[in-house]
Recover the amino acids of this structure.
């Protein structure tokens, strides 16, 4: 996955985490949080997913976003 | 080595013992692998350490970190871990690992498995935080261990994501027990035990169910909840608020927890969160305070996610998840303050002799200058310990321009790059290192100590240069750097002095000064033995013995190989000999010598292990060498089918690869000889031509092998003058350099030439001389190789030897006769194998009852050639006429 990506996780993640997620934008949609940003490559995405795993956040979906 | 990584994490006082999980884990004691796979905070470590503690199982525990992606580090920790159960375990393997040139991980693993078998005890090998392992090399190692694991050891892997190992296969073989997050998460009952029995918080059943729903049994969340309840009056209300909040639970709870800490403790928590491990003195230094010990102990007592890393309570760390939450908060504050914290931590580790951890802190703040400074001081030790992967990692991470300022780092980094085949990348670093050291040496203001140090360093750099230029085939530079190495190194450092001599050796080799070369390698071996580095010794010996063999020093060469192999076996490294390709070279060398002496059965015994060792070898030159010696051995035994098989394997390799000239020449010799022997003269002619052989070529020691069979072809084609010119050149070369084996072979071919030109007397003298030369070392192979051209002459030589005085011992003649007899017997029992492809085609047509004329037309050959084929068939099948040939061929299954 490359380019603009939207990762949705369960619950509201504090906007203070923006830095930890490499500057991805944090926004809310219902009870969920969307992380949106440009991912360099697969490795970058796996890095982000690892942070989600390490915080035991519930991953709901990963999608490319049309610009 | 950080021993804290081998400490079994102790259970905290409020632990919930989980009997139903332990029963499941007990089943794992009959399985190969126990896999605990769940995200952070599910109590993986606690469950396993409590299970081990409750049952007193012998266990080697290894908490992994990012650095353990270096296979050497990884294996070293495993060995030290197992040593806590069995003190003498793996000492030999450890010595091999901690060496600048190391054997493959798999052969070390093989060695370990053998040693594990000797431990008469069941035990567990626990690998915690396995998700941090990303290196393929380490993953391959663990796979190998799992595949070959003896029954008395059980591996326990704790990980946040399923490892890239063949887990599903183990599962289907019932060799796996696994616990996943659904097994690990707390049930309402577990929650009640924790909150009511242990912490005595008096929660209602309803509260407990609310907590279970909200946290889904996630233990880290529950523990943080318990922490934030401390001192709260209305706990039920707190739980309801928590349940109703849709924030990430840890954000919510962390805020609550920090709210009820004093400012002082909150500061302590935030600022120490940058530390991967902390001790009171370290915290004192970083935070400018002096009461860290009591704070750490209080935190541990209060379940503030602080884990002691040793039983003395010297080192602690935070639970990873807790540290992550703290760090995130710290990062929202002043960035310069964080850099300052890392600086202080790095300095503390540096002054307390933990440079690797100091480097990690310097890298965190991208302070590359400091990193390279620290690295320069420890890189030699790292190199000696075999930490190649780590050195490469730092080399990749740091900017080239900075690396070039540290001569020490440049040297070892480029050494590893050269070994990895990255010559072009290595050279500029060596150039910088050379310039820096020269400047210091030539600067009048440099202290005596600095000059001495840099001279030594320059010597080491020169060794690396010599090594590099020997690979790029630049004899001039190889030699001048070899000399520079010896000028700057001294025998008080036997390891490097040995490498110095080694570089002289390769320099002399590239200049074709073999006597000097042998002397240099011999000196290298003397100091190599003093250094005790078994890998260095093997490397030198595997260079030296083939060379001694080339020079006709068969006894010395043979003894060197067998001594080294015996030494390895006696030192407990039998496993290494079976799995390292360096030793294949020694086996091949021995087989080659045994073939020379016509001891073909012994040769076969030695070439077989070499052959299986080289199967997975990526070095094609080396493979071809093994295959040629194998082919030679089989030829000597009369196994022509086997020879063809070997030649086919070589053809396959050489179609797409280029190999060392001398090995290429050996291949041309073997294949060319086979074609001439089988009377495929046109093919032989074409083959030699394709490979650029001409009678008036400039010949070097590297390609001389190919020319004797070529001379044989010239003689068969009646090009006697050309053969004469070629042979005289070969003989002169061999005599000048005193290569006895070549002298003998050339004289044998001379005999064939003289016989063909009608000078039978001279031919016999040629053979007598050749046999006299062969006497001292039993070098009889050439008489076997070219037997068909000299068999009648040999019979007369036997007579002369029996009746007149020659320098040929009786035993030598007997040995030769026996070898020929054995070969002929073998061929008689395997008749069909002696036929060439063309002869086989002819035989098939004979079976169809075709006349010689018809056969000639069908095969597009002349009538004479067809007749020759038929004659050869009758001879080889040992029959009188065509119909007998067909009957016998059918009996033998040839057609």
């Amino acid at each position: 996955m490359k380019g603009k990506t939207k990762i949705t996780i369960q619950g509201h993640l504090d906007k203070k985490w923006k830095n930890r997620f490499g500057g991805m934008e944090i926004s809310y949609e219902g009870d969920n949080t969307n992380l949106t940003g440009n991912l360099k490559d697969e490795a970058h995405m796996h890095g982000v997913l690892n942070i989600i795993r390490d915080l035991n956040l519930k991953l709901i979906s990963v999608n490319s976003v049309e610009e | 080595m950080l021993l804290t990584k081998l400490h079994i994490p102790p259970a905290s006082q409020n632990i919930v013992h989980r009997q139903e999980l332990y029963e499941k884990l007990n089943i794992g004691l009959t399985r190969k692998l126990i896999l605990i796979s769940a995200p952070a905070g599910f109590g993986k470590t606690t469950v396993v350490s409590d299970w081990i503690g409750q049952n007193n199982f012998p266990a080697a525990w290894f908490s992994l970190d990012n650095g353990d992606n270096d296979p050497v580090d990884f294996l070293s920790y495993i060995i030290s871990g197992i040593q806590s159960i069995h003190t003498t375990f793996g000492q030999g393997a450890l010595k091999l690992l901690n060496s600048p040139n190391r054997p493959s991980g798999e052969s070390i693993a093989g060695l370990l498995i053998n040693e594990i078998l000797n431990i008469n005890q069941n035990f567990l090998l626990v690998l915690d935080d396995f998700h941090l392992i990303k290196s393929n090399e380490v993953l391959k190692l663990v796979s190998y261990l799992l595949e070959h694991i003896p029954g008395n050891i059980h591996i326990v892997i704790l990980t946040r994501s399923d490892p890239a190992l063949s887990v599903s296969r183990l599962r289907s073989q019932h060799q796996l027990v696994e616990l996943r997050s659904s097994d690990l998460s707390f049930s309402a009952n577990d929650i009640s035990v924790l909150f009511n029995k242990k912490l005595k918080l008096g929660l209602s059943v309803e509260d407990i169910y609310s907590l279970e729903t909200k946290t889904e049994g996630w233990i880290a969340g529950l523990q943080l909840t318990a922490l934030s309840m401390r001192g709260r009056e209305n706990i039920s209300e707190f739980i309801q608020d928590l349940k109703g909040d849709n924030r990430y639970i840890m954000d919510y709870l962390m805020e609550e927890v920090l709210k009820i800490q004093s400012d002082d403790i909150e500061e302590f928590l935030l600022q120490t969160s940058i530390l991967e491990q902390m001790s009171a003195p370290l915290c004192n230094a970083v935070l400018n305070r002096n009461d860290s010990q009591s704070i750490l102990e209080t935190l541990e007592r209060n379940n503030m996610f602080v884990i002691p890393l040793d039983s003395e309570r010297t080192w602690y760390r935070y639970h990873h998840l807790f540290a992550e939450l703290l760090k995130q908060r710290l990062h929202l504050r002043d960035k310069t303050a964080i850099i300052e914290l890392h600086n202080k931590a790095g300095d503390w580790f540096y002054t307390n002799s933990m440079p690797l951890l100091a480097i990690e802190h310097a890298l965190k703040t991208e302070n590359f200058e400091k990193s390279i400074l620290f690295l320069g001081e420890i890189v030699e030790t790292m190199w000696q310990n075999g930490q190649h992967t780590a050195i490469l990692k730092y080399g990749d991470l740091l900017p080239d321009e900075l690396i070039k300022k540290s001569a020490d780092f440049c040297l070892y980094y480029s050494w590893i790059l050269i070994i990895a085949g990255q010559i072009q990348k290595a050279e500029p670093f060596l150039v910088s290192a050379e310039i820096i050291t020269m400047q210091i040496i030539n600067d009048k203001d440099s202290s005596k100590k600095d000059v001495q140090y840099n001279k030594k360093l320059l010597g080491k750099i020169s060794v690396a240069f010599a090594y590099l230029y020997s690979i790029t085939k630049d004899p001039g530079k190889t030699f001048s750097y070899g000399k520079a190495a010896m000028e700057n190194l001294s025998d008080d450092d036997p390891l490097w002095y040995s490498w110095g001599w080694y570089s002289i050796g390769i320099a002399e080799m590239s200049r074709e000064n073999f006597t000097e070369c042998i002397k240099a390698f011999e000196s290298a071996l003397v100091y190599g033995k003093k250094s005790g580095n078994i890998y260095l010794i093997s490397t030198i010996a595997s260079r030296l013995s083939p060379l001694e063999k080339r020079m006709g020093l068969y006894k010395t060469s043979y003894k060197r190989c067998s001594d080294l192999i015996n030494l390895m076996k006696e030192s407990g490294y039998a496993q290494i000999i079976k799995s390292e390709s360096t030793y294949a070279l020694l086996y091949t060398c021995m087989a080659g010598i045994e073939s020379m002496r016509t001891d073909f059965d012994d040769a076969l015994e030695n070439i077989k292990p070499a052959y299986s060792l080289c199967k997975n070898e990526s070095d094609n030159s080396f493979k071809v060498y093994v295959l040629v010696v194998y082919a030679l051995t089989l030829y000597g035994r009369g196994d022509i089918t086997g020879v063809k098989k070997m030649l086919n394997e070589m053809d396959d390799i050489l179609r797409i690869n280029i190999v060392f000239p001398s090995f290429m020449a050996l291949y041309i010799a073997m294949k060319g000889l086979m074609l001439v022997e089988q009377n495929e003269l046109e093919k032989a002619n074409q083959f030699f031509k394709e490979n650029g052989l001409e009678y008036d070529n400039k010949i070097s020691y590297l390609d001389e092998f190919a020319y004797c069979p070529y001379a044989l072809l010239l003689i068969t084609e009646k090009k006697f003058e050309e053969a004469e010119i070629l042979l005289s050149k070969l003989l002169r070369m061999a005599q000048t350099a005193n290569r006895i084996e070549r002298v003998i072979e050339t004289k044998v071919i001379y005999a064939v030439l003289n016989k063909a030109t009608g000078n039978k007397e001279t031919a016999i003298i040629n053979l007598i001389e050749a046999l006299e030369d062969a006497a001292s070392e039993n070098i009889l192979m050439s008489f076997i190789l070219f037997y068909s051209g000299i068999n009648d002459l040999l019979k007369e030589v036997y007579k002369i030897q029996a009746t007149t005085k020659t320098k040929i011992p009786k035993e030598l003649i007997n040995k030769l006769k026996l070898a020929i007899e054995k070969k002929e017997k073998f061929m008689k029992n395997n008749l069909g194998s002696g036929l060439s492809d063309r002869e086989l085609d002819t035989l098939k047509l004979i079976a169809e009852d075709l006349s010689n004329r018809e056969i000639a037309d069908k095969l597009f050959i002349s009538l004479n050639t067809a007749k020759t084929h038929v004659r050869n068939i009758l001879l080889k099948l040992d029959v009188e006429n065509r119909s007998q040939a067909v009957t016998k061929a059918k009996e033998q299954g040839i057609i």
Remarks:
- The longest helix of chain B spans residues 448-471.
- Chain B has a mean pLDDT of 90.
- Residues 188-259 of chain B form one domain.
